[in-house]
TrEMBL record, chains A, B:
Residues 6-60 form the HTH lacI-type domain. SMART domains: HTH_LACI. The keyword Thylakoid does not apply. SUPFAM superfamilies: lambda repressor-like DNA-binding domains, Periplasmic binding protein-like I. PANTHER family: HTH-TYPE TRANSCRIPTIONAL REGULATOR GALS, LACI-RELATED TRANSCRIPTIONAL REPRESSOR. The lineage of its organism: Bacteria, Pseudomonadati, Bacteroidota, Sphingobacteriia, Sphingobacteriales. This is LacI family DNA-binding transcriptional regulator. Keywords: DNA-binding, Transcription, Transcription regulation. One of its GO terms (molecular function) is DNA binding. Gene3D superfamilies: 3.40.50.2300, lambda repressor-like DNA-binding domains.
Amino acid sequence: MSDKPTTIKEIAKILKISVSTVSRALNDHSSIGLTTKMRVKKLASELNYEPNQKAIQFLHGKSFIIGVILPELSESFFSTAISGIEDIAYKRNYTVLLAQSHDDAEREKLLVEKMKTQRVDGLLVSVSKTTSTYEHFEIFKRLNIPVVFFDRIPPIKDIHYVASNLETGTYEAVNFLLKKGHRTIGMINGPNTLVASHERKEGYIKAMLSNRLKFDPTLIINSDLTEAGTIEVMDNMLNHRRKPTAIVTFNDYVALFAIRYTRSLNLNGIDFVSYANLPIINYMDYTPIASVEQFPYKQGKKAADILIDLINKPKNESGADQAYFNVVVESVLVVNDPK
Amino acid sequence: MSDKPTTIKEIAKILKISVSTVSRALNDHSSIGLTTKMRVKKLASELNYEPNQKAIQFLHGKSFIIGVILPELSESFFSTAISGIEDIAYKRNYTVLLAQSHDDAEREKLLVEKMKTQRVDGLLVSVSKTTSTYEHFEIFKRLNIPVVFFDRIPPIKDIHYVASNLETGTYEAVNFLLKKGHRTIGMINGPNTLVASHERKEGYIKAMLSNRLKFDPTLIINSDLTEAGTIEVMDNMLNHRRKPTAIVTFNDYVALFAIRYTRSLNLNGIDFVSYANLPIINYMDYTPIASVEQFPYKQGKKAADILIDLINKPKNESGADQAYFNVVVESVLVVNDPK
DNA sequence: TAATTTTGCGCAACCGTTTGCACACCAGTT
DNA sequence: AACTGGTGTGCAAACGGTTGCGCAAAATTA
């Protein structure tokens, strides 16, 4: 039955007309007579003709595919972000080639390579936690394939990115705790390699200073964000000469580790504030009292939009220095309902 | 600077040799002299030559892309499954085109259409909850593009699929509850359109009968799997003339809704058993006492493997009836640690 | 030295579609 | 009778790479 797919040539041969006429007829070109158009279309649908996209992509040098590399889909932030990306891609007639780095810098490099050989029209990246060099993205500049980073952006210049401004969110969070009467506020921060860690720290400091409180750097401790790492940091916090009455944690997962640990020690009374606002919070009995919401869906949408704009932008004519899109999605503090 | 990418033709022109020689040199063809090879390769790397994959895909009629359509990445089952799919695809040199139906049958149809125009080499599908017709997958048969269903498989014949056998898992689950002394066991089941609902019911019945207990059909109630639907079903359960002392729920999410609801009524003492074994269970204070684990990663891997095998299988020569892969991944009951 | 094999390379077709250009035909205008 | 203008169609090149076949020069053999 179903042999090779029908081509435009076969239609031409059967109808004894040229392939160009068939092509134009199918594309409703104005210079083709109505009767010819009808004949062609009728036969085409009878033969279940489907244009060979590979030929078309080749001809136009476009694939209508955007690549997305992100660390971990099981993290709620990313699975939500990908929905935003997908929705925009869908709307603008692109499809999404997906790959997870699992926070492994080596794998990320290989994935970038793969995206290159697939010749995606553009690339969306949220870099892995362990990535410390960024040359593997350079290739894309040479190939004139736009790259947009989102959320986890590399600390380098001349890139397009979309990220949330955690400084303002953190400022709000610390302010919120201060207003609640807390004076000793700890922070479990992430690795210094992450831009986001600096922003959190800055937000924290600014909130303290603007409330005329002195900033104690020993109350900010970096963690590797694992459960074991979190417990270690918590031990330090709890044995600190100024034991915090409230703690800002790097994200909801860290908050959950920390809360579970304090509860296992039968410690109560420490307020936690966190980032991300995970849906699982709704299922928990003991949760952060507030979270900084980062709007992953919105970030994903925005990043995809920028990427597709870049793809369709007329080439940088003058070869001049082009502008870089640096979009910041404001983060806001969401106070959780008390249970 | 970076103009159009280098092509094989330019290399040929510069070196004053033919394109075929360049092509063969780059592919280490045996009939090319060593010196020519060296010259070609040297120049190629100097010019940052990258073969145009679109041309190659066109030539071979292959894209090395597999499409994946699934309902919802934020469901842990699917985000884990996609990792399995991706890992296999990666290993076997394919990439993954992803799309979420968000459990919307209409959107699913459009996505199938898109996958078709992208001419994926194969398709992996977990159908949406609301899908009730399946003709949109027929096109792929005509185009000779293999389709493998996983987890949520449609109730039709002549398809390839990978799914877990929930009957055995359910049997184990009910047996487990019976051994614990429960005699009145409720079940919150899913819509009857899902194959999985039937399997659960069958497992339930078999466990009861094999323990010489009579099966009470009114203790199995179907739900739409939303929180509101779950609460409604729970109300029915709790007002049942035989109030269950244990309940088997369709999945962990339903279990969480149900548990939360019973706790809001200050009801204790009902044991819940569920499916999926979500990681968030670890963060919960009140959880199902056991879950049927369905091994999403394994299912994803298996499905991808089968799909790629099908893609690379020599065409069905005789046009004869080909075999369909129906793989069942056994599910097992995992008893949760008491907190 | 002539015949034969091997080595190294080029020619040209091909994959399916689009598109600039030419051309033939017919009608209406000078 | 020559000219203009539209209408409908076909020719052929182009996109970038692969590959069967042929052919010349060099190396081997008789």
